[in-house]
Amino acid sequence: MTNNNNLGIHSSLNLYISDQAYVLTSATDNQSQSLTINRKDSQISLSSPGPPEKFDRLVNNVAGLLGIIRLMKSDYLVLIQSARKVTNVFKTAVYTPSKFAVYPISLEPNLSILENSDERYLLSVLKAHLDHALDKTFFTYLSKTHPNDPEPWNLTNSLQRQGSITKQNKQADGAVSDEQQEQPPWKTSDDRFFWNKFIQTRFIELASQPNGNQASKFILPVIFGFLEFKSAVIKGKRFTFGIVSRRSRYRAGTRYFTRGINSEGDVSNFNETEMIMTTFPPNYNTQANGPTDPGNGRSFVKAGFVQTRGSVPLFWTEINNLRYRPDLKIIDLPESLEAMKAHFDQQVSIYGDQYLFNLVNSSGYEKAVKDGYERAVKELNNPRVHYTYFDFHQECKGLRFDRVQILIDQLHDQLVDQAYFFQEFSAGPSSNPASKVQKSVVRTNCMDCLDRTNVLQSALAKWVLTFQLKQAGILEENESLDKYPDFMFLFRNLWADNADGVSKSYSGTPALKTDFTRLGVRTKKGAFDDGVNSLMRYVKNNFMDGPRQDSYDLFTGAWRPPVSDDPQATQPLHDQHLFKGPYDHHLIQAIVLGFVIFLLIFISATFTQKRSLKLAIISLIILSLITRYIFQHGMEFVNQPRLKGSTTNATRHRILSYNGPSSRIFQSSQHGRTKINFDLFDHFVSLLSTNNHHHLNPPPPHSSSTAAPPLSSSISGPNQSHVLDEDKKKRLD
């Protein structure tokens, strides 16, 4: 039988650099073939073991190959230059990158490549994404050090999925089949959570060829999200407790630029969160007869519980336009039901029955999302999709977040039947079958699928963990975790860290309401921190998220550069303003500069020794006019994504520009608009823009001329219902 270690991924690489090629070799296995990347044509091939005969530079101890990505002028080799070990679970070491390295494959000098402004921008967002991913990506090398070790843990899979893969590929006598011996880690990885799969595509193609199986040892799947494990003790009994959140690479993005669903059934901000408990001790040793715990010979346990979160699966978006509360638009396309069906069909096939917990508000701004979701689920009429609404802010008003227990109590029987994954490892070379498997999943959402979702997920996790610890013999039947404050401190902080990790990836800031998650109560300091984080979200979501969205689209393949080298075939990047007006970037910059200048004049005229009431009043009036103008044309001042044609932007643009029957559209009124008429000021700016347009910045030749409908347009027709204002509300029929 072939040792499963042969299926593992090289844990240390040497990189040989020359004008002809980049050559990667294993630093620990001199019998494995090398990987060669030709710098003239970017072709990838396997070559004989060992270093090349000629090379100009050697980089030792590279932690892993992340992939190859094509930009406008060159392909780039992306490596994990170094990594640090974060934990050891089930005899599997888990790592996170501590440094990335990016090498241009083109033979052109770097300065020549970077003369292209598009290339500079793409390279900058790629490096920004890698910097952002430093503490959010995790991987294992998936190799055994001993035949009786547990199967190496592929982080893209939950414990239950991992167990199913292992079971399906074993023969009746317990031996590993030939088919299993040939299954490299990239083949058994969950496609949704294989974060770098797009930039590993060429290596996967090579590994799929008849003589390319050795390339599999270079293909390192990583997850993007959160991972943390802690040692815990209850009544002298030690166990390990941890959380893994896996973010889907489909429809990945930022808070306001990715909402809802696409035509393929992918939803934004989809995360699978798994809580894991194991009694494998830190000093776990592998003996010839299997896993043993020196001193007492007892068996070990591993248990998991999976929850999911994801955006409401409708075609909807929030239009960030400098207002604190963006405008909301929902459309009911002919394929809306098919998209939702595709989403839930996939979820049911993976997890079983879906228990949908919807936490959005039942009134005000969010009501249209609630009503649209309920109407769509009812129309879907899938007996395996179970919808429950919980008005979080109404039920938990007065900072009583503990009242989410009401929802758990309401669905007690269904959640008990849902169960969790639980497996006991007896002494000997093989483990017992899982005594429990999770048969369904709770899918929670609020508007962002962040703060309210975090509170409910942590409460449900605590409820399930109590059952798991009782089954493991750590808690007595009538005991509660609240009896052990030291453990609850660890539990709450781990879930709060997870909430922050998921939130930073989507909103750019830590989660809100984490004082309750950490302390079990709401505090004044927590409320203050929430205010600060809300302000930071406003700034980042309006002025910083364009490039961040581009970085997600570039890395995951939602946007791909043209393959032709013909300059005529190259679509230049440009600011993809979805609301088209007679304005251009230079004018926008001039308006912002004017605001800053008159602000300084106002400060000088008001607070310095040379005070001037007349100058202060004039500058204040001009500041008011400019501020009014900026907010009235807010979308022109928002930092928009620039990658033309990305699938993410295409879905959003389709929603914004949709002009179908009014009965199929919901659009909120423009919050924050005043009724003062500034037509004269608008007319002046429009004339200024028209007169200078050709001198300042002619429109890109490939830009779309389709404009979004006016944001103030109201719903008309026989099916109209109420405009979502504070006093008037409209919802989609």
TrEMBL record:
Residues 703-716 have a biased composition (Low complexity). The keyword Membrane applies. Keywords: Membrane, Transmembrane, Transmembrane helix. One of its GO terms (molecular function) is phosphatidylinositol-4-phosphate phosphatase activity. One of its GO terms (cellular component) is endoplasmic reticulum. It holds the Pfam family Syja_N. It comes from the Eukaryota. Residues 164-188, 692-733 are annotated as: Disordered. GO terms for biological process: phosphatidylinositol dephosphorylation. Residues 723-733 have a biased composition (Basic and acidic residues). Residues 153-508 form the SAC domain. PROSITE patterns: SAC. InterPro entries: SAC_dom. The chain crosses the membrane at residues 587-608, 615-631. This is SAC domain-containing protein. The lineage of its organism: Eukaryota, Fungi, Dikarya, Basidiomycota, Pucciniomycotina.
